[in-house]
Amino acid sequence: MSTAILTGPPVAGSPLEADLRTLGFDVRTANDPAAAAELIHAVPAQERVAVVDPRFVGHLHALRLALTDPRYPAAAVPGVLTAQPAARAALARAVGRIPVGAGTAHLTDVLTDTLTESLDREETGLHCVELGSLVATVALTPAQREEAREAVAAVDDEAVRLRTAVKSRDGFFTTYCISPYSRYLARWCARRGLTPNQVTTASLLTALIAAGCAATGTRGGFIAAGFLLLFSFVLDCTDGQLARYSLQYSTMGAWLDATFDRAKEYAYYAGLALGAARGGDDVWALALGAMVLMTCRHVVDFSFNEANHDATANTSPTAALSGKLDSVGWTVWVRRMIVLPIGERWAMIAVLTALTTPRIVFYALLIGCALAACYTTAGRVLRSLTRRARRTDRAAQALADLADSGPLAELIAAGARGRGRTSSYLAPAMAFLSAAVLLVWVIFENDPASWLTVGVALCSALLAGAAVSRPLKGALDWLVPPFFRAGEYVTILVLAARADVPGALPAAYGLVAAVAYHHYDTVYRIRGGTGAPPRWLVRATGGHEGRILVVTVLAAALSPSGFTIALTALAVALALLVLIESIRFWVSSQAPAVHDEGEPA
Known about the structure:
Helix content: 55-70%
Strand content: 5-15%
Strand order of the largest sheet: 2-1-3-6-5-7
């Protein structure tokens, strides 16, 4: 149990003690800083401790935000300060520094505010809660207390809690067609003790059942799949809203939330491809193309954001124009819909599944996502070219991690380092050539399953090594990881398609899915502030250039049927390797309790 220390005698008639117990706190009283320090030291080190002014008046949800959010080592609202184990030592030092005796009444009378200022100076990760319309104040006189109670009564904190459960930035379909009722589903789940992880798992299972229905290849199956996919998305919105409503953030939840959306979508693509095959239509190439396009589009987003996450002098005329357009309401929604976020995308997939055929679904998906990718990438290139920004070492390292270079590229980069002229656009140019040389060869060569292709793959690796031989701090260096992803994924797709044997494309689909999981896992580790996966894992998976080389060697050395078997084995081996390490990390104590509140994927 967590402990709340009231720094003075309770105020008669105040519901504060009852509210603290409702939130799971054991309430104790300390009449001076010395007694408070003793109580803080007496609380077990693994427990949360709070210091609360007994004159506090405010909403229960304001208390909840300050006292129970697990994402911050320390948090505060006026009159309330809480510290998790990571900030307990800083709190104890702050209490120990409070002077006693004559002339210190201004410090001890508002002890929580004094301690909050002290923790803020120590840079312990103190989070000062944004209250909005919620009330949280210390009432020093009966008149102030009455005024504060009236202010509390004037604001419905449950309505605020429901409203803030919805992600602050979301797509049009999610905002107007899902969230108006999914927030109430989230509250229903909270009142029955359900956790966000359970809802996330239910969303995954629903999507997998939808994929199974699509795999039947019947009209009834397609209709059921469309409805189930939409319901899966409702649950997908509900889990995040439940986490925000009840402040149930966790490392496991971060991992599930980060990976299950992609697992659901890509499993559904596979279900559609299986259903089409039952009807005599082979759309595996389209399904794999949709996966490749979606993943490359996401890595553009991730790379651009990481490159500019902490850049200094980070301004551009394009960004200023975007800011001006934000003041015109309808343009915000149009621009959000153009990028085809997950809500609009899943709604389109669900409706087209129920009414048309898998081939039409994939055509629409590929066209829509291609247009969205062109729009977002063009805008980001324009911003980068007009932006005067200095990229940091952290940003350069994040881009290098997203590049996923293996031992071969590292060796080439080490040999190329310090040679030749430096250019702001050298890295993206080399990365583009690395992908383009290989793709042009495998697409237009009459027989790409040859040893000549292996030689071209080696040339591609040389160019990839040159691309990462210097820190990625250039204006367009964020394009390096997307070029590498496109080169690797499309090479696998083309070689499998041109093998022209049953099972080659499904095997390639599994291989790209395993590699894409590894890349998404890298993204969310970086976002959580823990850095990329360990280098041994990147080396064990070969890096992007190593995997390309392995696939081209397998295509040259084996028959088409043998190539299919080898792709399947490689997919299974990579999936096991990256999944085991990912699960180990995300359930460990080092994993961050982060949830995506940004732009919808």
